[in-house]
Amino acid sequence: xxxxxxxxxxxxxxxxxxxxxxxxxxxxxxxxxxxxxxxxxxxxxxxxxxxxxxxxxxxxxxxxxxxxxxxxxxxxxxxxxxxxxxxxxxxxxxxxxxxxxxxxxxxxxxxxxxxxxxxxxxxxxxxxxxxxxxxxxxxxxxxxxxxxxxxxxxxxxx
Length: 158
Ligand SMILES: [Zn+2]
Fold this sequence. Notes:
Elements: H1 2-16, H2 20-36, H3 47-50, H4 55-79, H5 85-96, H6 99-109, H7 119-129, H8 137-157
Zinc ion is lined by residues 31, 35, 98-99, 126, 130.
């Protein structure tokens, strides 16, 4: 659910931004704020069920969230064509790019890539903000849904 939240919040903030650069920058700042919400990437399930998940299932959950987020953004753009694609895309990319060095590159190329001289500081700053503490499932879900709901409202009605 966190991945879906990143996509939608980034897109919504992008749509409110005056230009591409600020959309990307605001999206990036929003990533840090969203990562402060206690979250596990496989956020759809209560803790007791999460413990039994395999790595493959966790990745499926992340990618499913990405897919669902993109689908919702795409649907809103289709229904409400007044939005401008480039600025929404800039906000969206701003809000997810930090997860590429921190999460996706190690997934594809192995853990040793985290020692890369360029990636290391990006990964460190990302995980400095990342909060994966265990709060109860309902609270976590509620916090994500507030962001997701606000983002959808912004994309639809502004
Ligand atoms: Zn992150």
